[in-house]
Design goal:
CATH superfamily: Carboxypeptidase-like, regulatory domain
Distance between the termini: 19 Å
Shape: globular
CATH architecture: Sandwich
Radius of gyration: 14 Å
CATH class: Mainly Beta
Number of strands: 9
Helix content: under 10%
Oligomer: single chain
Length: about 120
């Protein structure tokens, strides 16, 4: 099982083209050791819109219409991570942190250990 949590994203650095009437989502995709996973795909199930992570696992989805969505993180060699019922409002929204596990580790992951891995 994969885990995702929210955190307060800092959008003060600015991303060109942001429409204040639409929502903006930032986040990070990490492996079970806490390292960013580059070139991961994060997409919105309901719209198909996607973003790819940078080399450190950071992503941003800008100009998302306000609604409730499912966010999905995918990366080669890792089990897909899905976060449902994600509310998106106009302007800045919480950031999302996905912790992903290799396909081979899925059956061996201790939920408590995985949950604690991203609280450090």
């Amino acid at each position: 099982m994969n885990y995702a949590i929210t955190f307060n994203a800092d959008l003060s650095g600015g991303t060109s083209g942001m429409d204040p009437k639409l929502g903006h989502i930032r986040g990070k995709v990490l492996d079970m050791d806490g390292s960013g996973i580059g070139h991961s795909r994060v997409w919105i199930r309901e719209t198909g819109r996607c973003a790819y992570t940078d080399g450190n696992g950071n992503f941003v989805l800008i100009n998302v219409p306000p609604a409730v969505y499912s966010l999905i993180a995918e990366s080669e060699g890792y089990a897909q991570s899905v976060l449902t019922d994600v509310p998106v409002e106009a302007g800045d929204n919480p950031g999302y942190l996905f912790v992903m596990y290799p396909h081979y580790a899925r059956s061996r992951v201790d939920r408590r250990r995985g949950a604690l891995a991203f609280q450090e």
